[in-house]
Amino acid sequence: MLEWDRSHKYELVRFFTEVIRITIHFRDGVASIAEMRSLRRALPEYRNMPPAEFRERLRSIPALDLGELPGQVARSLISQLRQEGLQVVSENASRYGYLPYDVTTGAAWLIEDEMELQEIVNQMLAEGIPVRSVEG
Questions:
Q1: Total Cβ atoms within 10 A of residue 25
Q2: Which of 11, 20, 99, 135 fits a 20 to 30 Å CA distance from 51?
Q3: Looking at residue 59, what DSSP letter applies?
Q4: Residue ranges per domain, the chain?
Q5: pTM above threshold 0.85
Q6: 83-102, pLDDT tens digit by residue?
Q7: Helix 33-42 vs helix 51-58: crossing angle, to nearest 10
Q8: DSSP label at 63?
Q9: How open is the CA angle 63-20-100, to the nearest 5 degrees?
């Protein structure tokens, strides 16, 4: 477990990340030929995929999860998918995050492991480290 130098002055930088999860639901519970064509037109990663591989990938799934995308990118893609006639479900997956900032050294502490980061943030919050919110 990481330890933070309590002899230094810290603050937690609180930031907002706008994220949207996108899922395409197939109308008949399986992708139709028309939906497959629309997907190939709308999504670059499927355009050059061999047709047999593409069909196999979609063969038995009722929905295609495109994952989480940044808000502006997601809204543009949703619009494009809907123009193609696809049934798109979007859900807000936005969240706040914290970045420990060592005021003494003037450096942000980048912790890649999400669980370790959350533990450090929880410790800092419990010990009353000040929080500064930043807007994107």
A1: 13
A2: 20
A3: T
A4: 10-17+95-134, 19-92
A5: no
A6: 999 999 999 999 999 999 99
A7: 110
A8: E
A9: 135
Predicted local distance difference test score (pLDDT) of residue 136: 57
Strand order in the sheet with 107-108: 107-108, 95-102, 10-17, 131-134
11: helix, coil or strand?
Answer: strand
Query: Among candidates 74, 77, 45, 70, which has minimal Cα distance to 58?
Result: 45
Residues 6 or more apart from 10 whose CB is under 8 A from it? 4, 100, 101, 102, 103, 104, 124, 129
Query: Side chain identity at 57, as an amino acid letter?
Result: R
User: Is the CB of residue 14 less than 8 Å from the CB of residue 133?
Assistant: yes
Q: What would the mean pLDDT of 109-134 be, rounded to a whole number?
A: 95
Q: Which residues of 47-79 are buried (b: 16+ CB within 10 A; e: fewer)?
A: eeeeeeebeeebeeeeebebeebeeeebeebbe
Q: Give me the phi and psi of 118, to 5 degrees please.
A: -65, -40
